[in-house]
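note to self — DONT lose this again. spent like an hour looking for the file last time. sequence + predicted structure for the chain T wanted, 175 res
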Amino acid sequence: MAKPRKMLGDVTGPSAVAMMALIETQSQATLGQWAVTFAQREIAPIYNARCQESMAISAALAAARQYLEGTVSLKEIKAVVKEINQLAKTYEKDVAAQAAVRAAATACSAVYLPTAALGYVFYAIAAMVYDRVGIQEQPDVYDRLAEETFADILASLQAAAVAEEPQPVKVKWHC
């Protein structure tokens, strides 16, 4: 692979289309809870294993959870997201760690921005796939693993989804 992509996955693929449709039926709170929970369970361990000296991801995700609980302001969580996005630049040589940082930052954004719930998935896929197979595989390997991982992440949102959500988000997709 010449240069690793920042995100993996196909926005026109079946899992992405199903994810967008499901996102449109959920509330901002549900999307935020799901993104933060999934990131804490799947993304933070990738980062923590590679960057043992830093608890930045865990702290950011904890702040996002506090935002959902009402103990952190929108201004504060946006500052956390900005700080974590800056951190991603320091991991140029570790693509999986960098993708994990981007995924965590985008998961934190998903607590207040519904479209971030989808963007988060593409970064999460990159973190998970690069952590699993590295950066030397052929493009078709990444495409296959990305779709498999996307389907797994979609299943996690389906499990977290609220049936007949009374206040679904309004989303205009620009992808």
